[in-house]
Amino acid sequence: MDQKTVLTKAVLNAWQIQLDRTTKFINSLSDEQLQNEIAPGKNRGVYLVGHLAAIHDALPEILGLGKKAYPDLHPIFIEAPDKTVGKIPSVSELRQIWTKVHDRLTNEFSEMQPETWFTRHESMTDADFEKEPSRNKLSVLLTRTNHLAYHFGQLRLLK
Fold first, then answer.
1. Which of 30, 33, 41, 69 has its Cα between 20 and 30 A from that of 138?
2. Using an 8 Å Cβ cutoff, are 101 and 69 in contact?
3. Residue 122 neighbours by CB distance under 10 Å
4. Quick check: 109 and 129 in contact, CB under 8 A?
5. Which residues of 42-53 are buried (b: 16+ CB within 10 A; e: fewer)?
6. Rounded to an integer, what distance in angstroms lies between the CA atom of residue 85 and that of residue 89?
7. Residues in Cβ contact with 89 at an 8 Å cutoff, skipping those fewer than 6 apart
8. What pTM did the predictor assign?
9. Residue 35 contacts by C-beta under 8 Å, 6 or more apart in sequence?
10. How far is CA 144 from each of CA 32, 53, 61, 127, 157, rounded to the nearest angstrom?
């Protein structure tokens, strides 16, 4: 197995481990528990689920795999802080969105060849990529994996 295949496999495995842990934990929480704040005056669990779903829904665009499926999540869960938007999707809706977003990513990622992960992502120019080839599609997934792990740690405070 060549180095790109090994590295890609390692990063994809780390992503899947974090995703599986987070999904299992979210599914173990009741809708009421997800309405609670992580800490007094901080984000609610439902907001973090929506935030992660919105961030992950943007991955296909960044990776050049297609458009967001839920662009309406962006202004609610990325642009606006928690409790500043009047109406947000219900916990039930967010659970469905979570599943659909991650099923799509699992399918898309399984089709990508290791070499593809080392190419330029859509949020940078060719010139920037030439200067910094380490800012590739695989690095995007690695940062999203770390972001997921960070918020998973916050969600754990709900139990």
1. 69
2. yes
3. 12
4. no
5. ebbbbbbbbbbb
6. 11
7. 50, 73, 76, 97
8. 0.96
9. 44, 45, 46, 91
10. 27, 11, 14, 23, 21
3-state secondary structure of 8: helix
Could you give the domains of the chain? 3-158 (1.20.120.450)
The DSSP letter of residue 120 is: B
Quick one: which of 116, 154, 147 has its CA closest to 18?
Answer: 147
Q: Which residues contact 150 (CB under 8 A, 6 or more apart)?
A: none
**Residue type at position 132:** E
SS percent in the chain: helix, strand, coil, step 5: 70, 5, 30
Nearby residues of 152 by Cβ (< 8 Å), 6 or more positions away: 18, 21, 22, 25
